[in-house]
Amino acid sequence: MGTSTSTTATTARARLIEMARHNMAVVESGTLEQVPEVMRLPAERYYDEDRWRREMDRIFRRMPLMLAMSCELRTPGDFKTLDVCGVPVLIVRTDSGDVRAFINSCSHRGAVVVTESAGNRKRFTCPYHAWTYDRDGSLVSVYAEDDFGGIDKTCHGLTALPTGERAGMIWVTLDPDSPLSIDAFLCGYDHLLAQFGFESWELYDQRTVIGPNWKIAYDGYMDLYHLPILHRNTFGSNMPNQALYYAWGPHQRVSSPDPGLSRLDAIPEDEWPVERLLGSVWTIFPHVSIASFDGGGGRGVMISQLFPGESPLESRTVQNYLMAELPPTEEMRKAADDQFRLLKYVVEEEDYATGLAQQRALRHRPGANVLFGRNEGGGQHFHRFLDRLLDTDDSDLPALFRSMTTEQGR
Ligand code: FES
Ligand SMILES: [Fe+2]
User: Fold this and answer.
1) Phi/psi of residue 124, each to 5°?
2) Cα 124 to Cα 381: distance, rounded to the nearest angstrom
3) For residue 255, what are the β-bridge partners?
4) Among the bound ligands, the one closest to the CA of 133
5) Which domain holds residue 170?
6) Which residue's CA is the nearest one to ligand 1's atom 3?
7) Candidate of 102, 128, 139, 151 to mutate for ligand 1, largest count of ligand atoms within 8 Å of Cβ
8) pLDDT at 387 over 70
9) Which residues, in sequence order, are CB contacts of 177 under 8 Å at separation 6+?
10) 138 and 214, same domain (yes or no)
11) pLDDT given for residue 6 in this prediction
12) Is the peptide bond before 286 cis (omega within 30 degrees of 0)?
């Protein structure tokens, strides 16, 4: 680890401690910081087709998206394919240990080159006419090359997509020519996420849940106001309804005021266990949430990757259950399974069932507004940023994110 990396880690830990202290002060004072006003948004933003298409073009097709965890692609040759907003993507760990991503489409006539969802390969051979690519996406052989006629193979590799690996996660931008770098986009948030140490974690289980409009789902990630109400029969009956929000550009951490944090005061600050400092929910704009759990199965997080569906009214969420260590006993394995089953039930039967009915109901109230309260600053920040992003041209994206980095500080 170089000096600058360890300095960054020290700064990130100091920021975690600062947030814990802020949380303790809020609990102590019994008050909550509120944003200045209640926000009103036209409800049609959740179902209007034109708005949705703009969101696909200006958000999902040009923002870096967190498409894989490093532990899914640990060894050179490990690959993963997925479809993101209609774009077929191939992600590969190369021989040098870097991760690269490509549009999964052959340079001959465009067939999908890799049809399995994951695996390990030295070469990727197109199923149509057997053109073959290496792990770097370079075209290495053309079937019956003499018959085909001469082409410069070096100009016919797979189309590369901007890719970056940070904090044990892999970001890919679907626009090959995006002017927005992954670091500018992350606004330093990855240094905080790095405190989890996900590189060494294990993917324990993975599931897909079908849900409503992507913003209805994402609103829910940042909403703690509903916990003791909608989730009263599962986990929420004793949860606070209040939330503390911390922003790094468009990425937000959402914390519950936690009376248990005061127990940390009994030990020196530099011995505070990092897992106590990372609780509640970390969202990654525009489509990820990370929530921590420490049940009988051991330390785990659910990393939810939200993908818009074919229309404004559909989305699909891949729930990844990562564990710091795989459960060593049958009993712990069972506890981890129970925990993950509960999270699927909560999201599917409580959050998304409510969201699907909510969007149906909203469509029958033309001209209606939805409201975000003074206690829902996270939702306000998200929707305000969306408006700015939709109005920003590609060439102005880096400046938009630079301005976000200097404006933050909540
Ligand atoms: S389309 Fe891939 S080899 Fe022809
Ligand atoms: Fe919820």
Assistant:
1) -120, 115
2) 43
3) 244
4) 1
5) 65-178
6) 129
7) 128
8) yes
9) none
10) no
11) 78
12) yes
The 10s digit of each residue's pLDDT in 238-281 is: 999 999 999 999 999 999 999 999 999 999 999 999 999 999 99
pLDDT value at residue 410: 42
Query: Are 205 and 138 part of one and the same domain?
Result: no
- Residues 253 and 326: their CA atoms lie apart, in Å, by 26
Is 60 exceeded by the pLDDT of residue 2? Answer: no
Query: Is 197 a residue whose pLDDT tops 80?
Result: yes
Q: Each residue of 141-164: b (16+ CB within 10 Å) or e?
A: ebeeeeeeeeeeeeeebbeebbbb
pLDDT score at 234: 95
For atom 4 of ligand 1, the residue with the nearest CA is 129
Tell me, rounded to whole angstroms, the distance of Cα 385 from its chain centroid: 17
Model pLDDT, residue 408: 52
| CATH number of the domain residue 368 falls in | 3.90.380.10
Whether residue 332 has its Cβ less than 6 Å from ligand 1: no
User: Do 128 and 187 reside in the same domain of the chain?
Assistant: no
DSSP line for 369-396: EEEE-TT-HHHHHHHHHHHHHHT--GGG
Phi/psi of residue 86, nearest 5 degrees? 85, -10
pLDDT, tens only, 91-144: 999 999 999 999 999 999 999 999 999 999 999 999 999 999 999 999 999 999
Give the ligand whose atoms come closest to the C-alpha of residue 355.
Answer: 2
Tell me how far apart the alpha carbons of residues 239 and 225 are, in angstroms, rounded to a whole number. Answer: 10
What CATH number does the domain containing 162 carry?
A: 2.102.10.10
Whether 158 lines ligand 1, by a CB cut-off of 6 Å, is no
Predicted local distance difference test score (pLDDT) of residue 407: 59
Number of domains the chain contains: 2
Residue 295: the pLDDT is 79
For residue 332, how far is its CA from the centre of ligand 1 (angstroms)?
Answer: 48
Residues near 340 by beta carbon (within 8 Å), at least 6 away in sequence: 204, 205, 207, 300, 302, 319, 321
Q: Is 129 in the pocket of ligand 1 (CB under 6 A)?
A: yes
